[in-house]
Write a structure and sequence with these properties.
Length: 354
């Protein structure tokens, strides 16, 4: 990891530890105040506990032009971003995506979409509905490895993180506490429950927490739709397409709407927020991830609405290209931050219990 990021975060953490004005703001400060000295692992854990709500910055009396020039949200964001790149597998891919995320996401989606259309032109799938464009077995052969690769990559990354922060063996109680904190986005509520200051300086707002919840639960509903459809196909012998009132459609449509709205709101908030309080040079990667995830949901909804028209083959190619790109880029995009935040919350719960 970059030494200058760690040293700057260490300097600011030591000043915050002496001040303690922000003690009740979020999970970061109780964890920070429990230390007397900060190892690289301690700073990495604090950085991944931080949700970048920015409340501490706007409450701080030591920000610039004070000589201490504190900017703890950016200091931790830089360490956090650097840790994702350091622990990623393979490492080089994460660094490249963060620098050129929008272009890489766009090129990957279009590239895969053109490849799918070319496959259709070469050989007819001969099935019904979507399977007339690409056979079911062909989809499985392509998407199963693309789904398994990010799981393996993220597992390796989290193992590296767990070791780096000095966390111990997992306990059920720690997992339960970590999942509970992640599920309600506790640390995006702000120290007094009024929300965070992400998009408009010292004005409190819950908009970012609601946007994150829409994305998280929308994604989980879409994943549930795919899982239920898989069970229906292989266990119950019920092949797609499914009617609207079936579970795959109900989960998929509602999840797609939530996911689309959440991504649109997150992009709006990101463009409105002060970039000097986030990770240096990571804007393209962050916007690239949100835009790609939003396009996956929007193209899925468009495909559902226009699936019986002549536009279906092109829309399906774009949607499948976006899904394939999303899977393969997940370990290197900001999508991975959810896994790190969960790991940090679990490690924090473990440390509190000793």
């Amino acid at each position: 990891m970059q030494t200058e990021f760690l040293e700057e975060a260490r300097r600011q953490a030591e000043i915050c530890n002496a001040c303690r004005y922000c003690e009740g703001y979020c999970s970061v400060f109780p964890a920070l105040h429990a230390e007397r000295a900060f190892s690289d692992g301690d700073l990495t854990q604090l950085a991944n506990l931080c949700h970048n709500c920015r409340g501490c910055y706007y409450a701080c009396q030591y920000t610039a032009p004070h000589e201490f020039a504190l900017n703890l949200p950016q200091a931790l964001a830089n360490v956090r971003q650097d840790s994702w790149e350091e622990f990623a597998f393979p490492r080089a891919a994460a660094h490249v995506f963060q620098k050129s995320g929008l272009r890489i996401a766009l090129a990957t989606v279009l590239g895969f979409a053109l490849l799918i259309l070319a496959m259709r032109a070469i050989a007819s799938a001969g099935g019904n509905g979507f399977y007339a464009v690409m056979a079911h077995n062909t989809m499985v052969a392509i998407f199963l490895p693309a789904f398994l690769f990010p799981l393996l990559s993220i597992a390796i990354s989290l193992r590296r993180y767990w070791r780096a922060v000095g966390a111990g063996p997992l306990r059920i109680s720690d997992l339960r506490a970590g999942f509970a904190a992640a599920a309600n986005m506790r640390d995006l509520k702000g120290g007094h429950g009024d929300g965070c200051n992400f998009e408009d300086e010292d004005r409190f707002s819950h908009a970012r927490r609601f946007a994150h919840q829409a994305v998280m639960y929308g994604f989980l509903l879409c994943f549930a739709a795919t899982s239920v459809a898989t069970l229906m196909h292989y266990v119950l012998g019920m092949s797609a397409p499914y009617p609207f009132w079936s579970l795959p459609k109900l989960f998929g449509v509602s999840g797609g709407v939530l996911l689309s709205l959440g991504c649109i709101e997150m992009i709006r908030l990101k463009l409105k927020a002060d970039p000097k309080l986030g990770a240096s040079g990571a804007t393209s990667g962050e916007l690239g991830f949100v835009a790609l995830l939003g396009f996956v949901s929007l193209s899925g909804l468009a495909l559902y609405a226009l699936g019986q028209t002549v536009l279906m083959p092109s829309l399906l190619a774009l949607h499948l290209g976006a899904v394939l790109a999303f899977f393969l880029l997940t370990p290197f995009s900001k999508m991975v931050h959810g896994f790190y935040r969960l790991a940090a919350l679990v490690a924090d719960a473990q440390k509190k219990k000793g």
